[in-house]
Amino acid sequence: MLSFKHSLQSLRKLSGTSTSQLSYGVRVFVGLCGAMAVSWSIDRIDMVIPLFLGVIASALAETEDGWQGRVRTLSITLILFIITAFGVRLLMPYPWAFGASIAVVAFSLSMGGALGRRYGLISQATLILAVYTMIGLNQATHEVPVWYEPVLLTLGALWYGILSVIWAALFAHVTLRQALTSLYIEVGLYLKLKSKFFPLPTRGAVDSLRLDLAQQHGQVVIALNRVREILVSRIDSDPTNPRLGRYIRFYFIAQGIHERASSSHYNYSDLAETFFHSDILFRLQRQLSEAGTSCRKIGEAIRGGHAIDLRDSEETVAGVLRSMDYLEREAEPTQWRLFRPLRQLTDNIIALQQELDKARQLEDVSLSDASLQIPQPRTTFRSIFDQIVDQLTPKSQVFRHAVRMSLALTAGYAIIQNLNLSVGYWVMLTTLFVCLPTFGSTRKRLYERIAGTVIGLVAAWSLITLFPVEIIQLAIAVVAGVVFFLTRTNRYMLATAAITLMVVCCFNQVSDGYDVIWPRLIDTLIGSVISWLAVFFILPDWAYRQLPITFAEGLRRSADYLRELMRFYQEDNVSEQVYRHSRRRAYNADALLTSTLVNMQQEPGHFRRDTELWQRLVIRSHTLFNYIAAFSAHRGTLIEQSSNQLLADAGNYIVGSLHEVAECLEQRQLVNDSSVEFERLRKSLADTPADEDERHYFVQSQLHSLLGQLEEIRRLTHELQVQVHGSDIKALSKTR
């Protein structure tokens, strides 16, 4: 067993895959081998292609549910598969009807993405299976019954689906453990980046670091959402499983660590200047770095089931405490002014370590209390219908992609018919894999698809020449299919080369594999061109057009988040569920803003507009979010004081101002400069005596920092509006 474990670790390092990907590969390997064995045993090697393609389509539709959830998903998948395959078989002899049905079915299935990732995968796999059916019928060497291709494809899908369900039952929490591992690794990387703020680097380096931090924040949010989605499906399928409570607690601990890590306290440049001659900032840097390492250790412990070692981060926390004790005794008079902000910062670091310690102390807990923190969404036919209807607008990315995919596939079919391509349906298959929702991702996938196809064809020509024996070529096809699934998410060029090799080896069993080499290359080029034209001209999703709306939405969600947080400092009874919902929406909006900026930077030069200004705005937006997150890390109820009304007024003003800036962006109205009320609040917060309660002082100083960020956001937004809209926005300003 130890030797086997070392072999798996070596394979993971070599392939760059995770445990879940390896288990994915094992299932595909068993599925393909089973399909090959059946075809070989009954001496019907021609059946291997539809069975293989059915296995692949089913594997592409696989979700991360528990075994009960996978049974439901498999049932939906098989129904869609059999209906689609028979539809293709019956309509294919009638080109006009078939072309019209392609447009309708492609749009309808692509809109399935409106229901979430699970149904998006099923819809995509169904479209792929439809094209597989076309390829199989097109390449048939003799007349086959109407049921032949649809039934074999569906049987291959059923065979892999059964394997998937059995695997999910035997290894119930492997996917969840892997997702938690990835989450802790991403949080650890975030902490490593955050540690670079101590001591503070140069001004130019700070802006670059903040942008990197915002992008890594997006990766953490993606990982959090993935774990939450898996947890929801597990609670729904197996609510009485006692081990699930432990994983829910791990999820909330990671959420708490990220919340504290994303908090910003006071102005780091002032702290760096005041405590330049102390070692405290270096100790804080080391502590955050070690905390990042500890997060990785927790993730690896979750995956491997071994003990969690946090000694290094605990030692660095002890060093921070010693340094703070020394400063408290020996601090110079000039340092006392910022000693309280420094204390708040170190308290947050210490609390972060306490969150890490919770992970080590976890044991199986009852699910009843933990699961209440993750509400189960109620799914009805009405809610499904409403979700789809809400997305039937050109403003929706799902709708735009559905229209694009529908027209692109129809155009591909028209080209196949008019040019009379002998193996032309790979044009449509290429379009399905290459045409993605954004231009940047489509362009990257296009290059990888073409390069991978060339590599795969060269490898296929070489291998079928070197190894003319049928069984060896089938073994190569199986191995290539496994490699495709191991690498398709992170090494798409290699994945394309592998699937191309598999296709040629399979076709060489029923016809001459050399005859499909050139058609495969030509079809790939045509399909890639169609995808590029579709994403460029059909309802293009240029990020610079989306940035103002995305930025406005981010400001609005941050404002709502702040409003909920301020209640913790003013009210006794606050709904934790409402707060968590508001926080998740704010985190998602901030991550979406950063990803939209990244998408814009991948687009053609003339569509990368005002990049520098947008970078500065995204940095400011994320910094604002960081200051708000600090309220969450320290939330508690303030004692009654006469100046509490000032804090409430300042919080309400910031919330209202963020909504106002968001509305101005959406309505293309000029953002005003700071008002008289702004100046009054900032002066009042700055002049309020600092000898108040610690929690009161914290809220006061954070609100003062938020006002500074708000002023900068107003200034940069005004500058952007004038630069983008020019005379129109200037004319509007004169009328005010």
Automatic annotation (TrEMBL):
Gene from which this protein is expressed? yccS
Q: Pfam families this protein is in?
A: FUSC-like (PF12805), FUSC_2 (PF13515)
Indicate where this protein is primarily found: membrane
Organismal lineage? Bacteria, Pseudomonadati, Pseudomonadota, Gammaproteobacteria, Oceanospirillales
Per the record, the similarity remark reads:
Belongs to the YccS/YhfK family.
What is the membrane topology listed in the Swiss-Prot or TrEMBL record?
Multi-pass membrane protein
**Subcellular location, record wording:** Cell membrane
Record protein name field: YccS family putative transporter
**What sequence ranges are listed for the domain Integral membrane protein YccS N-terminal?**
74-354
